[in-house]
Write a structure and sequence with these properties.
This is Glycosyltransferase family 9 protein. By secondary structure, this protein is an alpha/beta fold. It folds into 2 domains: 160 residues, Glycogen Phosphorylase B (Rossmann fold); 210 residues, Glycogen Phosphorylase B (Rossmann fold, 3-Layer(aba) Sandwich). Helix content is 32%, strand content 20%. Strand 9 and strand 10 form a beta hairpin. Helix 1 runs parallel beside helix 10 and helix 7 runs parallel beside helix 12. The longest helix is centred in the N-terminal third of the chain and has 17 residues. The N and C termini lie far apart (55 Å). The relative contact order is 0.11.
């Protein structure tokens, strides 16, 4: 049988009341799945869409408008949301599988990688139909698409949703921002003396929301001071642009009239402080100040985000905020947004580790040196100032 013969069986499944999507991973990975989630909801508007994920998914999606109706938190399963060589509580996993079988899902969509570990787990959940990506070393689900790396994750997951008739309409915004998100961001910014002043309500070109300005005390007459967010951290040090480069970008934007805020997690506080201290102009230190929802409120208010390839960058693009992203070339292919007009990408073509010289396209070495340090300040500043203007 051809590896593509499964496509002839694609089509909507009748009588669907409940769909589960398996994707227990990180923030950026969730954002990449949003178009496919919207497509499934569009195809089955009366079905309950249940997300099998992690505790942070449950907290973040509670009460948030969107395609997901309910989140079920999974236990750690080796190779499925947990390290392959990790330990698992077999009794807890068996109990979870039993609970999922009792849910009587009509469709379970495996959206967690190439399926070597996740496809067998998905097939155990007792759905009428399972769909998923399938690498060469993976057992196939009932309907499947080939897993290819590198590849645009959003489009790959949309192709998977199409196996059951999921077709996505154009979305100007993939992720909803709630009143609670906005209130949290407003409280934090108010603590830094910033108050939001909406303009006339007009939308910027290509945007679906009004532009906002921020005031920080008296400003020159007619000056629109806009909030810009810098995101210098990442869970992978190899994707981090140097802190002094972010400081230089912050100064360039502040010199153009922007209010600059530097965001990061609690663990990234030293890095955020390094960027702020390296700037000649004042900047706001937001390390650890916002939860994930409050971060969404901040990103919605921002005129521009300048970021490494990391979760907040992809949240900004899903919300509809223009961004400059610093990418390693294969990661740009993975994470390119559905709305290309929102992103200006500064891309490093380095393929060999600066420490050991190993080509990291096929296999990654153990070193943590930056693969994007060769991206110039001039390139990023050009993109950022163009978007700001």
């Amino acid at each position: 049988m051809s590896r593509y013969a499964h496509h002839q069986h694609a089509g909507r499944l009748p009588g669907v009341a409940k769909i589960a999507v398996l994707r227990p991973n990180a923030v950026g990975d969730f954002v990449f799945a949003l178009p496919a989630l919207h497509a499934l909801k569009q195809a089955y508007p009366d079905a309950e869409l249940v997300f099998l994920g992690k505790a942070w998914h449950a907290q973040f999606l509670q009460g948030r408008p969107g395609p997901v109706d309910r989140v079920i938190v999974m236990p750690p399963v080796p190779g499925v949301g947990a390290p392959v060589d990790g330990t698992a509580d077999a009794a807890l996993v068996d109990r979870f599988v039993g609970q999922m079988r009792a849910e009587r899902f009509d469709i379970v969509a495996q959206m967690y990688g190439g399926g070597r570990y996740s496809n067998p787990f998905t097939m155990c959940l007792g759905a009428r139909l399972t769909i998923g990506a399938c690498a060469r070393d993976a057992a196939p689900t009932d309907r499947w698409v080939a897993h290819v790396e590198p590849g645009n994750r959003r489009l790959a997951l949309l192709e998977l949703a199409a196996l059951v008739g999921g077709v996505m309409p154009f979305l100007s915004r993939e992720l909803a921002v709630t009143a609670a998100d906005r209130d949290e961001a407003a409280r934090v910014l108010a603590g830094h003396g910033l108050s939001e002043k909406p303009l006339t309500g007009r939308c910027l070109p290509g945007q679906d929301r009004p532009e906002h300005t921020l005031s920080n005390g008296p400003a020159p007459e007619g000056e629109a001071r806009r909030l810009v967010v810098l995101q210098p951290g990442s869970s992978d040090p190899r994707r981090c642009w140097p802190a002094d480069r972010f400081a230089a970008i912050g100064d360039a934007l502040a010199g153009a009239g922007a209010v600059v805020a530097v965001n990061g997690t609690v663990d990234e506080a030293p890095l955020v402080r390094q960027v702020v201290a390296g700037m000649r102009h004042p900047a706001i230190d937001l390390a650890g100040a916002l939860g994930l929802g409050g971060l969404c409120g901040l990103l919605e208010r921002a005129r521009l985000v300048v970021s490494n390839d990391t979760g907040p960058l992809h949240l900004a693009l899903a919300i509809g905020t223009p961004a400059v992203g610093v990418f390693w070339h294969t990661n740009l292919l993975d994470g390119a947004p559905l709305r290309p007009s929102l992103l200006r990408a500064a891309v490093s073509a380095r393929v060999r580790c600066p420490v050991c010289g190993l080509d990291n396209r096929a296999a990654r070495c153990a070193h943590q040196a930056s693969f994007v340090a060769e991206v110039s300040v001039d390139e990023v500043a050009g993109h950022a100032l163009s978007l700001l203007r």
